[in-house]
Amino acid sequence: MTTTAPTAPASRPNTARTLLWHAVCVAIGLVLLYPVLWLLTASVKSGTEILSNLSPVPKVFTPDNYASSVDGVSGISLWRLFGNSLFISLATVVGNVMACAVTAYAFARLRFRGRGVYFGLMIGTLMLPAHVVLIPQYIIFQKLDMVGTFLPLILPKFLATEAFFVFLIVQFIRSLPRELDEAALIDGCGPFRTFWHVIMPLLKPALVTTTIFSFIWSWNDFLPQLMYLADPDTYTLQLGLRTFVDQSGDAAFGPMFAMSVLALVPVLLFFLAFQRLLVEGVQTSGLKG
Predict the structure, then answer these.
(1) Where do the domains of the chain lie?
(2) Residue 66 — φ and ψ, nearest 5°?
(3) In 3-state terms, what secondary structure has residue 100?
(4) What global pTM score does this model have?
(5) Residue 75: which pLDDT band, with cuts at 50, 70 and 90?
């Protein structure tokens, strides 16, 4: 006659440890989200209460801040600011995707003299602080009579100046099998047709990543726009936020925070629109062969 050993009860310490871990994660998440919560509540506070009341709960609900922000600042409408920021950001996305993809294909697949040296110099620019080249770039664009226009903010993107995205796409192309290029060559495709019809469709994960980060970085950019844009009609949303603090020597914090909340909406919508493609890119970027 055989006997079976009784089943051991579930371990309670493991359950307690799991609950404790989840509680810690929730607490960390609340700490990280507190600045966003404070921004949302500050957008419906008066300027005086923002400075005196550190609590996220407003004592006096002031929704007029959003109406003031929509009216614009210093005679510039909110829609003009949004339009300028959107134009620069979308042009930056197009420039980075096109120029960086072509440049990365040349470094990853084509053989030409000095390829290693050029690639090393390009990677070296990642370690170069951006502030070092601000004055030389400004002098160049001033000589070209481009200061005061959108060109200094857009034109460099079409010249593959973003070494990070070039490096990202180069590494992705190198993970693709070279047999694809050889098959295209047998079919009579040259380098351009091979890139456009064979490599480009496979670059979707890398291009989506480039698109998302290019848009977000350009939308949130401030210093280059402050340097090159002098006409209020060309101001972006970020420069408009600064104007709220400077106008008439008074700080209109309420409308400024309200406009800050509105400025987050396009970035959030852009990320949500491309989130599925970004997740798919992360899942498929490790597949080879």
Answers:
(1) 32-62, 71-284
(2) -70, -35
(3) helix
(4) 0.82
(5) confident
Measured distance CA(253)–CA(45) in Å, rounded? 9
| Opening angle at CA 285, ends 205 and 163, nearest 5 | 60
Structure tokens at 264: 């987050």
CATH of domain 71-284: 1.10.3720.10
What confidence score (pLDDT) does residue 280 get?
A: 61
Whether residue 114 is predicted with pLDDT greater than 50 in this model: the reply is: yes
pLDDT of res. 289:
40
Cβ-based neighbours of 41, under 8 Å, separated by 6 or more: 56, 57, 58
Structural tokens at position 34: 């507190």
Confidence (pLDDT) at 245: 67
Give the amino acid at 93.
Answer: V
Length of the chain, in residues: 289
